[in-house]
Write a structure and sequence with these properties.
single chain, alpha/beta, Rossmann fold, 7 strands, 14% strand, binds guanosine-5'-triphosphate, binds magnesium ion
Length: 319
């Protein structure tokens, strides 16, 4: 169903939650009207600070996200929450809703909560998450918290969408080894050892600090990811997490890293949209004469497959 994009965008820019929700649904549904939406939103984007939260299932991401929302609300910030599930197919967000433990904030007009499933999307997470972030950004969110739901094989992808990446761990046997395995020691800007009310939190902090210090040739001025202990369920340590985030934000601005990361993100976004568009045009080729004609020429030896592919790409992009 076609929607009145102009009025929806105007309402979203005023921060109307229902309009924001509708726009994110357009993203999730890969609506053909997205072009128009994104063009209208573009001048309003680029102000929000995007924080990604990743970690193993059950480590306390949702609880921490909720605690961070409380902390940012106390500081007068408008907050957007995007819960991304890369392992579930498009569900309209309904299925995910109950997994996001955000009831405390559901009635706060300064908080937007959306969940989004991305499996089965052309372009998947790399394409959908940045578009949803744009919507929340244009709606006036100061901070956007992006939480991954489900098994975290997309941790690196989420990290690529954020200005700052928070990696959560909990005390317990083999955590450090798991961390190294998952490659998360490379992606965290801030590490949080949650569930510090449990035994072994200090050991996990020590182990993490040790591993983060290994094999590093940091120059003066380089960022050293801090390790913060929290009991998210009781809000303990959350102010320290906010302080670490602010410090990282400031450091990135000072060293030009924020601009660099955002430029890389925009480049990745353009790439995934372009690849998706090309793939769609490829998909539309069935029944088209171009591909079989090229195949004939390759078969007969008149053409090599690389040159044939070049010709195909050219004909696809020419219209
Ligand atoms: N003891 C203790 N339990 C906690 C703490 N933080 C969260 N929990 C509990 O841990 C469980 C999982 O927390 P969630 O916040 O849902 O974890 P999650 O990482 O979002 O989980 P998924 O989204 O399913 O991957 C819940 O029962 C929380 O109440 C904490 O600091 N201490
Ligand atoms: Mg969760």
């Amino acid at each position: 169903m076609a929607v009145d994009v102009a009025s929806l965008v105007a309402q979203a820019r005023e921060g109307r939650p229902r309009a924001v929700a509708r726009l994110i649904s357009l993203v999730e549904g890969a609506s053909p009207q997205l072009r128009e939406v994104m063009a209208a939103l573009a001048p309003r984007c680029g102000r929000a600070y995007v924080v990604g939260l990743t970690g193993s299932p059950g480590v306390g991401k949702s609880t921490s996200t909720s605690a961070l929302v409380t902390a940012y609300r106390q500081r007068g910030k408008r907050v957007g929450i995007l819960a991304v599930d890369p392992s579930s197919p498009f569900s309209g967000g309904a299925l995910l809703g109950d997994r996001v433990r955000m009831n405390d904030h559901a009635s706060d007009p300064g908080v937007y909560i959306r969940s989004m499933a991305t499996r089965g999307h052309l372009g998947g997470l790399a394409w959908a998450a940045p578009q949803a972030i744009r919507v929340l950004d244009a709606a006036g969110c100061d901070v956007i918290l992006v939480e991954t739901v489900g098994v975290g094989q997309s941790e690196v992808e989420i990290a690529a969408q954020a200005d700052t990446s928070v990696v959560l761990l909990a005390p317990g046997m083999g955590d450090g080894i798991q961390a190294a395995k998952a490659g998360i020691l490379e992606i965290g800007d801030v590490y949080v050892v949650n569930k510090a009310d449990r035994d072994g939190a200090d050991a996990t902090v020590r182990e993490l600090n040790h591993m983060l210090g290994l094999g590093e040739a940091r120059k003066p001025g380089d960022w050293r990811p801090p390790v913060v202990k929290t009991v998210a369920a009781r809000g303990e340590g959350v102010d320290e997490v906010v302080a670490a985030l602010e410090k990282h934000h400031g450091w990135m601005e000072e060293h030009g890293v924020l601009a660099e990361r955002r430029a890389a993100r925009a480049a990745g976004e353009i790439e995934s949209i372009a690849v998706t568009a090309l793939r769609e045009r490829m998909g539309e080729l069935s029944g088209d004469k171009r591909l079989p004609a090229l195949a004939e020429r390759v078969l007969s030896g008149a053409l090599d497959p690389y040159t044939a592919a070049d010709e195909l790409i050219q004909s696809l992009t020419e219209g």
